[in-house]
């Protein structure tokens, strides 16, 4: 599906998520029904996991209408943190789904299946793997194009659904060939739960790092410093501070210039440095530049030594 040339990143996020929502609803219903008709607990658990995908799809669609809003008096830095909040919500939903599936698998491990597993369960697991992997690849590409952390998290939700169907497919195949090995179906369901919870913890941890204002890694700060020093009016760069707002960076830095430079010239350098970083920097949302004359920078350095 091609992208409309005039489509905004948020519109692109919503479009791919709407398609994902439709696929998830159909696939979840298909797996639950096939698992019920085919007598596979693992496939029913996998279908329930797919149902949670519909909740996260709705969260991304609704959230995109809010985090795309421009800055206002109440939110001078914009609303991008809402995207991070949505990604944490997705992680929490994943974790709860995984915990529920794992609990059900453990508490019912002693129960044998009343009926043998049927071919429909085997076919449903195989179809699920193919469809969810295709949905993951498409969502991931769009997430990178739109630079959306929430869509990237949702893409991994699709990938984990595909991964979780692999042991389900194996378990259903074993149970189909050897009905007396019903334990394999329960073990596969528990393995799915572990995969889901592990991914959920990673998504939640990544979101919390942004909410507590963790800065960019050293290599990104060094990249910022090198870009700024390419400006002919910049003598030195120091005190670079960064924090994430959604998937983008807010940057504060001090730029040392010639002390003979006028206030107007210093202001021009600051504006040009800001433009330089916004054009060439690593996904930067906003830049604050503090201008210092050479003498002030030297004085500050001497004070730090005392």
UniProtKB/TrEMBL annotation:
One of its GO terms (molecular function) is monoatomic cation transmembrane transporter activity. SUPFAM superfamilies: Cation efflux protein cytoplasmic domain-like, Cation efflux protein transmembrane domain-like. Belongs to the cation diffusion facilitator (CDF) transporter (TC 2.A.4) family. The keyword Isomerase does not apply. It is found in: Membrane. PANTHER family: MITOCHONDRIAL METAL TRANSPORTER 1-RELATED (PTHR43840:SF15). The chain crosses the membrane at residues 16-38, 88-107, 119-138, 189-208. It comes from Desulfosalsimonas propionicica. This is Cation diffusion facilitator family transporter. Residues 217-293 form the Cation efflux protein cytoplasmic domain. It is a multi-pass membrane protein. It comes from the Bacteria. Keywords: Membrane, Transmembrane, Transmembrane helix, Transport. Residues 21-212 form the Cation efflux protein transmembrane domain. The keyword Membrane applies. One of its GO terms (cellular component) is membrane.
């Amino acid at each position: 599906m091609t992208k409309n040339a005039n489509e905004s990143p948020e519109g692109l996020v919503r479009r791919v998520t709407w398609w994902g929502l439709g696929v998830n609803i159909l696939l979840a219903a298909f797996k639950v029904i096939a698992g019920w008709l085919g007598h596979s607990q693992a496939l029913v658990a996998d279908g329930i996991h797919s149902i949670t995908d519909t909740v996260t799809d709705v969260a991304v669609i609704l959230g995109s209408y809010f985090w795309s809003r421009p800055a206002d008096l109440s939110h001078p830095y914009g609303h991008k943190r809402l995207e991070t909040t949505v990604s944490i919500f997705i992680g929490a939903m994943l974790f709860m789904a995984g915990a529920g599936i794992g609990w059900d698998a453990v508490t019912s491990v002693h129960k044998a299946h009343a009926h043998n597993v049927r071919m429909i369960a085997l076919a449903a697991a195989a179809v699920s793997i193919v469809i969810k992997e295709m949905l993951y690849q498409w969502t991931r590409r769009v997430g990178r194009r739109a630079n959306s952390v929430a869509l990237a998290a949702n893409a991994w939700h699709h990938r984990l659904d595909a991964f979780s169907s692999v042991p389900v497919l194996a378990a259903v195949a074993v149970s189909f060939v050897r009905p007396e090995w019903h334990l394999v179906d329960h073990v596969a369901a528990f393995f799915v739960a572990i995969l889901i919870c592990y991914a959920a913890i990673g998504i939640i941890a990544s979101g919390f790092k942004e909410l507590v204002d963790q800065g960019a890694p050293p290599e990104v700060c060094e990249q910022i410093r090198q870009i700024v020093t390419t400006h002919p009016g910049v003598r030195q760069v120091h005190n670079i501070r960064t924090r994430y707002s959604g998937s983008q960076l807010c940057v504060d830095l001090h730029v040392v210039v010639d002390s003979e430079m006028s206030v107007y010239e210093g202001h021009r350098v600051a504006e040009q440095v800001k433009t330089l970083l916004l054009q060439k920097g690593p996904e930067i949302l906003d830049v604050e530049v503090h201008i210092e004359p050479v003498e002030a920078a030297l004085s500050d350095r001497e004070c730090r030594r005392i």
